[in-house]
Amino acid sequence: MQFERSLGPTDLRIAVGIATTGRRSILHSVVPHLLDQTRPADSIVICAANLEDVDPEAMAAQISRTRIVFAERGLCRQRNRILESVEDADILLFLDDDFLLAPSYLEETAQIFRRYPDVVMSTGTVDADGILGPGIPLEDGLRLIGTCSKSASAGREKPVYSGYGCNMAVRLSTVRGYGLRFDENLPLYGWLEDVDFSRQLARYGRIVSSGRLHGVHLGTKSGRTSGLRLGYSQIANPVYLMGKKTMSPRHAAPQIMRNLVANAVKIVWPEPWVDRRGRLLGNMRAVRDLLRGRLSPQNVNVLE
To answer: Which N-terminal stretch is annotated as signal sequence (predicted)?
Structure first.
């Protein structure tokens, strides 16, 4: 299937960037739904960590203007590779490989960036988030998208501290002009990479959340970081971001405490889809390293 679009003199070119690792099935199920957009993407760049993560021929046959690139595993590395691959775009929408867009999402995104030249990042309203539960099956996600896109009112944009990494669009002229990059010192899943990149951008313009941008995050559990490593990152990453001043203590301290308390309390009756024991153990190792002056986000690379 193909899509073609003629650019007008005031049009902004939109690229969609998706980083993926170990989730080939969900990637190939979700990406074709980008064809449902009322305003098609001008390009789609998928960054995989391995050849096994994606079938380039099948993807190209489904959607034109799709490019497959590769980078070493790690969300920040892969998103930086996407940034390097979209030289012909004005807006780049970062999506998780399990995020479904309402049909008007790209059209509304273009209108926001065209209407507000000071907006450097936009993020949408997530009508259902499978990350908070066992995950949402694709069929249910598509049904929810149909419901929310029909019933959603056009809300105004409001300022937010950061975008939500599963769906955040950036103005590339600002990103390029100031040489902004995702911090590759946040390895693997890149916990809080969206906050770090948002606060870099916030120095040069507004970050907004829009009630006109809707989507469903399936929250697929396969291919995610282990509980031990995520638990370590829940402490190490916000402490690191405080040090580089892209996360304020006012935001970082509650984030750390919420995770510590949730993991400690729920370890007694853990959710079947969450490794609370692993997360709490990771939290404790990070606290130990903090007290010893050895805390670093990259320590997750050697955790077992």
So the answer is: none
Whether 273 contacts 135, CB under 8 Å: yes
Q: Regarding beta strands 206-217 and 119-129, do their DSSP bridges make them parallel or antiparallel, or are they unpaired?
A: parallel
Q: Are 218 and 144 in contact (CB under 8 A)?
A: no
pLDDT single digits (tens) 248-284 = 999 999 999 999 999 999 999 999 999 999 999 999 9
- DSSP label at 222? T
pLDDT tens per residue, range 134-193: 999 999 999 998 776 554 556 789 999 999 999 999 999 999 999 999 999 999 989 999
Q: Indicate whether 223 pLDDT > 90.
A: no
> Helices marked H in the chain — which ranges?
24-30, 56-62, 75-84, 105-115, 138-151, 172-177, 193-201, 227-243, 249-266, 276-292
> String of b and e for 72-94 (b: at least 16 CB within 10 Å)?
eebbbbbbbbbbebbeebbbbbb
CA dihedral 287, 293, 294, 296 (to 10 degrees): 70
What backbone phi and psi angles, to 5 degrees, belong to 94? -85, 125
Q: How many domains does the chain have?
A: 2
Domain boundary among 217, 251, 276: 217
The two three-digit tokens of residue 161, written as one number: 């501290």
Give the whole-angstrom CA distance, residue 27 versus residue 24: 5
The amino acid sitting at 164 is Y
In a shared domain, residues 77 and 169: yes
**Same structural domain, 200 and 261:** no
Contact 37, 9 (CB under 8 A): no
Element (H, E) at 46: strand 43-48
Residue 131 parent element (H or E): none
Residue 210 CA to residue 222 CA, distance in Å, equals 29
